[in-house]
Design a protein that fits this description.
The chain folds into 4 domains: 101 residues, Carboxypeptidase-like, regulatory domain (Immunoglobulin-like); 64 residues; 142 residues; 132 residues, Glutaredoxin. Helices cover 49% and strands 17% of the residues. It is built from 17 helices and 15 strands. Helix 15 links the parallel strand 12 and strand 13. Helix 9 packs across helix 11, helix 11 runs antiparallel to helix 12 and helix 14 runs parallel beside helix 17. The protein is globular, with a radius of gyration of 29 Å. The chain starts with a helix and ends with a helix.
Length: 463
C-alpha cells in the first residue's frame, strides 16, 4: 500500500510541477469572469477561466504545453498579452481596458516584455519624427545650409536605434522573450518601414525569409498569421513593379518551403492560408506558383481538400485551354429554352466569361447583380457571359435565373456535373475569362475585377 501511495505522490508532484499560474488584481472587475486563451498557429484555444472575487483578485493556471504567448480577456473584451514561460506571473491594475493602470508585479520575462512594449513604440514614433525633420533639413534650401541641426538629427537617430538594439541584445540568452521580442518587432515595424524607412526593406524581407514556420515558438506566439500577412504585404508594397513583386514572392515562397517540407501539418496550414491570402489580393501569379510548388512537393502529403483546390491551378492556370462545354436541353436565355448553340465552341464572340454559381450561394447573390448590371457594356465590347448553375431543382433554378440577360445552364447534378468537374470547381462563385480559342486569360475572384479588366483592356485599349 505504501508503494502505491509513493508512486501516486510522485505522479502528483510531476503533474503539478508543470502547472504555473497567473494571479493578480483588477479592482474594477470584481465578480466578473476572466479567461486565459492561448495561440496555436492560426487559431486560439481556451486555457483556463476563473471568476474574479469581490476584492478583484484572480488566479488562472496554465500547463507546460501552453508555453508561448496567451492573452487575458474579460467582459470588456480588451486583451492583455502575457508570456507563458513556466514562471509565476503577477499583474495588477484597474481593468484590462485601463491599460495605463496595468503593471506586471512578478515574472522576469513578462517584466521585460512589458518594458519593451511600452518603450519601443515611443522610440519608433520619435525616430519617424526625426526622419521627417531630416528630410526637411536636407532638401529644403531654407534649412539645408544648417549643418549642425542635420548632424544632431542623425546622431539622435543613431542613438535611438542603438538603444533599441541594445535592449534586445541584452535579453537573457535562451529565454523565450529573447526570441519573441525581435520577432514581434519584425512584424510590427512593417508599415513604418514601408512608409518611412524604405532603405530597410531588403533587410526586413530577408529576416522574414529566415522565419521557420515549423518552430514551436512561432506557432505558439500569436505572430504566426501576422508574420505571413506582414511578409507578403511588405513585398506587395515595396515600391517595385508588379513583375518584380511576383519574382520576390516566388523567392519568399521557396524560402518558406525549405522549412515547411519538414512538417506536413505546417505545410498544409501555411499553404492553405497563404493561397487564400494571395487570391484575395488578386496576386494570381504568386498563388499559382504556390499551388504548383505545393502539388509538386513529394516529401509531404497535402490534405484532400487543399489538394483539390490547388489542382485546379495546374489544370486551369492562365494560358491553358479550357475544356469545351456541351450544353443540354436546360439552356436558357431570359427564361426561354435556346437552341442557338449546343456547345461553348459555337460562340463567336471574342471573349466569354464563364460563371459558376448557385441560388443557395450567398456570395453569388452579391456578385451576379454586378454581372447583370455590366452585361450590356460587356456584350457591346465583345464579352459574352455564360452562367452555369449548381442548383438541383429545376423550378428553383428557373426562378433564380429568369431575370438574367445572359445564357444560363444547369444539369442539376451539382458537384457531380461533368462541367463542374472539368472546370475544377470547388466553390461558388468560380469565374473564368476565355478568349475565342478557349484560352484562359483571367481567373478573376470577383465581378469587379472582370469589369476592371474590361475597362483597362477593351475600353482604354481601343482608344
Amino acid at each position: 500500500m505504501k508503494k502505491y501511495l509513493f508512486i501516486f505522490a510522485i505522479l502528483l508532484v510531476s503533474l503539478t510541477s508543470y502547472a504555473q499560474s497567473i494571479r493578480g488584481n483588477f479592482s474594477l472587475l470584481a465578480n466578473q469572469l476572466i479567461r486565459l486563451e492561448g495561440f496555436s498557429g492560426l487559431k486560439t484555444y481556451p486555457i483556463s477561466t476563473a471568476t474574479i472575487d469581490g476584492k478583484g483578485n484572480f488566479k488562472l493556471s496554465y500547463a507546460k504545453e501552453d508555453f508561448g504567448v496567451a492573452y487575458l480577456i474579460s467582459s470588456d473584451e480588451k486583451p492583455l498579452f502575457v508570456l507563458l514561460t513556466g514562471e509565476e506571473v503577477e499583474i495588477s491594475g484597474e481593468a484590462l481596458s485601463a491599460v495605463e493602470t496595468i503593471q506586471v508585479k512578478k515574472g522576469k520575462e513578462n517584466l521585460l516584455f512589458e518594458k519593451y512594449a511600452k518603450e519601443h513604440p515611443r522610440r519608433e514614433q520619435a525616430l519617424s519624427a526625426w526622419i521627417y525633420l531630416e528630410k526637411i533639413y536636407s532638401l529644403d534650401p531654407l534649412f539645408s545650409i544648417q549643418k549642425t541641426p542635420i548632424g544632431n538629427i542623425q546622431a539622435e537617430k543613431k542613438r535611438i536605434k542603438e538603444e533599441d538594439a541594445s535592449f534586445l541584445s541584452n535579453l537573457p540568452t535562451g529565454s523565450y522573450v529573447a526570441w519573441f521580442l525581435p520577432t514581434r518587432k519584425l512584424v510590427s515595424d512593417v508599415s513604418t518601414i514601408a512608409q518611412y524607412r524604405t532603405e530597410e526593406i531588403p533587410a526586413t524581407i530577408a529576416a522574414f525569409r529566415q522565419l521557420d514556420y515549423t518552430n514551436a515558438r512561432l506557432y505558439k506566439s500569436g505572430l504566426f498569421k501576422d508574420a505571413i500577412e506582414s511578409h507578403f504585404w511588405l513585398l506587395e508594397n515595396s515600391g517595385k513593379s508588379l513583375d518584380s513583386v511576383f519574382i520576390e514572392m516566388k523567392t519568399s515562397i521557396d524560402a518558406m518551403f525549405l522549412y515547411l517540407i519538414k512538417n506536413e501539418d505546417r505545410l498544409n496550414e501555411v499553404t492553405n492560408y497563404l493561397f487564400d491570402l494571395l487570391e484575395r489580393h488578386s496576386l494570381f501569379q504568386a498563388s499559382e506558383y504556390l499551388a504548383l510548388k505545393a502539388l509538386n512537393e513529394t516529401s509531404c502529403t497535402l490534405n484532400a481538400d487543399l489538394a483539390k483546390q490547388l489542382e485546379s491551378y495546374r489544370a486551369m492556370k492562365k494560358g491553358n485551354i479550357a475544356p469545351d462545354i456541351v450544353f443540354g436541353k436546360n439552356t436558357y436565355l431570359n427564361g426561354m429554352s435556346q437552341n442557338m448553340f449546343s456547345r461553348l465552341t459555337n460562340l463567336t464572340t471574342p471573349y466569354t466569361l464563364v460563371v459558376f454559381g448557385a441560388s443557395w450561394c450567398p456570395k453569388c447573390k452579391e456578385e451576379l447583380p454586378k454581372a447583370i448590371q455590366n452585361y450590356v457594356k460587356w456584350r457591346n465590347l465583345g464579352v459574352e457571359v455564360i452562367y452555369i448553375s449548381l442548383d438541383t431543382d429545376q423550378a428553383v433554378f428557373e426562378q433564380a435565373v429568369k431575370s438574367y440577360p445572359f445564357f444560363t445552364y444547369c444539369d442539376f447534378l451539382k458537384w457531380e456535373s461533368p462541367v463542374v468537374k472539368d472546370y475544377y470547381v470547388f466553390g461558388t462563385p468560380t469565374v473564368y475569362l476565355l478568349n475565342n480559342k478557349r484560352e484562359i486569360i483571367l481567373r478573376p475572384t470577383s465581378i469587379d475585377q472582370v469589369d476592371a479588366w474590361v475597362d483597362w483592356v477593351l475600353v482604354k485599349g481601343n482608344k
